[in-house]
Amino acid sequence: MGITLKEITKCYKIGEETVAALAGVSLEIENGEFVAIMGPSGSGKSTMMNILGCLDRPTSGSYLLEEQEVATLTDDELAKTRNKRIGFVFQNFNLLSRVSAWENVALPLVYAGIAEKERLNRAAAILESVGLASRKQHMPNELSGGQRQRVAIARALINEPSIIMADEPTGNLDSRSSVDIMRIFGDLNEQGKTIILVTHEPDIAQSAKRVITVRDGLIISDEVKEQYHV
Amino acid sequence: MFKESIAIALRALVANKLRSILTMLGIIIGVGAVISMVSIGMGVKEKVQNSIASLGSNMLIVTPGAASSQGVRSASGSSTTLTLEDAEYIKKTIQGIDYVSPSVSKSYQIIAGNQNWTTTVYGVTPEYMAIKSLTVGSGSFVSQPDINSRNRVAVLGATVAENLFGEMNPTGQNVRINNAPYLVVGVLDSKGQSSMGQDQDDIVLVPLTTAQERLVGITYLNSISIQVTKMEGMDQAQEQITSLLRQRHKINGTKEDDFTVRNLTSIMAMMAETTGTITLLLGSIGAISLLVGGIGIMNIMMVSVTERTREIGIRKALGATYRDIMLQFLIESVVIGVLGGIFGIFLGILSAFAISTFGGMNTVISAVSILVPFGFSIAVGLFFGIYPARKAALLDPIEALRYE
């Protein structure tokens, strides 16, 4: 169960040269873990995030997600996998600017083929759980950064994925909102969600129970905190 | 999913109202142009078809040629060789003809009481009624006994009757033609104007023999109208009549005919064909503007896709497949096509109406001339939407999310 990466490489062609963003990464993440992936820019952590999030396919290697091989899926199969199993939280929120918070949260259900009534009911319930019940009808630009990120988290949760991928989720937030958001991730992890957090801030990474450091496309350290129990 | 795609597309169009309307304008003008242009062409066609119908179908008309004496040629129609016997002979010997109607005509002043009216008097036989599709409103038509005994009877056209008798029924009254009294036996139903703008009710009909011997004083005919049974038999009948008349008039070898056989239906059929071509040409001009409107759709959709790259990235990250994105953008362009088409129909009908009201041209709008451009506008929206929609659907989600 969980995630198993075996000898994952990802190469990009830049002109004549081939650059390996990932040079053979093997990794196992159990269900219910709270993992931070750290590394300076250019280390390959974003590439790793993209592959873990099924946004991209590795050049070689095997990626088992919930015992299913996803390294060789087609684009549409990857889209379905993202829709069902993975919730994304981005640094710049990535909400649709023209629709309300409510409909933004319900969006993944549109692509899951759920009827409108159920979509909106479920979105309302999730928004309430992140403390935004009164902001349902607001447009993203009418919300503060912290609120937007909570809408994004609600959206990530709506289709009940087992894994939440957060890419620098606090990068655009002030420190108070950052603490709020990290607390939500902590709570979600308590409820059994697997959280994968990509960050370059050591403070933020400290909230996780396991910290993986990447450099030059390789894992250079993988540290599990003492109080951590599966 | 389809319902959601329509909702998403409509929302995107509403969000960019001015741009959507301007894009639509290309289609509106295109569809409007096709409908109004075709309505003009079809209006012309309808006029021609009406005039064919008013001529009677499958008509051959024999008229005398130019008389020539010692090398001096007179006006056409002046030849005196076409006779009633020719007409009777044609009726007897040529196969596949329905009616033969010989006639003479001359202009006279008609007097009734203290009113007078100058019009053309036709000397005709009973067949004239069938061949010209005339109907008698009151009274009766010229009969065979009238022909045989050269009776002084007259049938008036509606215009003549009105001018001479006003509201009164002229049947049973007398009129004077060329100072001789004629008994009015009937009044024709109104036929209105011919395609050439001639009043077809401004006529007086008298028995052929009466006209020849008692009125005009001639032995020849001014024309013979012949109705052929079948359209396909027209050319053959024309040839047979020509050779029969040449034989009867003793015209040999290469000498010119002293008569003319005209095939009016074939002339009209050719005119109808020409107007069909005109309609097609006018329609194509409209269609070109529709095509240009389509390119406008493609242009705007390309801009829209680029502008919304990030939105596409978000949708893809959240699980939208190739088909979902394709459908979203395709429906957007089809909606432009459909809405543009609907407004274009209104514009087209309105301008066709304006052309006939203020331009004085006959315009005809049919279901086909509305539905074909409407279908075309949807097809244009679809066709020119495919490339931008495909471009959107093929975007790499990672690149799209990174797009600023």
Automatic annotation (TrEMBL), chain A:
Residues 3-230 form the ABC transporter domain. Gene3D superfamilies: P-loop containing nucleotide triphosphate hydrolases. Its EC number is 3.6.3.28. GO terms for cellular component: membrane protein complex. It comes from the Bacteria. SMART domains: AAA. GO terms for molecular function: ATP binding; ATP hydrolysis activity; transmembrane transporter activity. Keywords: ATP-binding, Hydrolase, Nucleotide-binding, Transport. It holds the Pfam family ABC_tran. The keyword Nucleotidyltransferase does not apply. The keyword Chaperone does not apply. PANTHER family: CELL DIVISION ATP-BINDING PROTEIN FTSE, LIPOPROTEIN-RELEASING SYSTEM ATP-BINDING PROTEIN LOLD. Belongs to the ABC transporter superfamily. This is Phosphonate-transporting ATPase. It comes from Pelosinus fermentans JBW45.
TrEMBL record, chain B:
GO terms for cellular component: plasma membrane. Keywords: Cell membrane, Membrane, Transmembrane, Transmembrane helix. The chain crosses the membrane at residues 21-44, 280-305, 325-358, 364-387. One of its GO terms (molecular function) is transmembrane transporter activity. It is found in: Cell membrane. Residues 20-243 form the MacB-like periplasmic core domain. It comes from Pelosinus fermentans JBW45. It comes from the Bacteria. The keyword Transmembrane helix applies. The lineage of its organism: Bacteria, Bacillati, Bacillota, Negativicutes, Selenomonadales. Belongs to the ABC-4 integral membrane protein family. This is MacB-like periplasmic core domain containing protein. It is a multi-pass membrane protein. Residues 284-393 form the ABC3 transporter permease C-terminal domain.
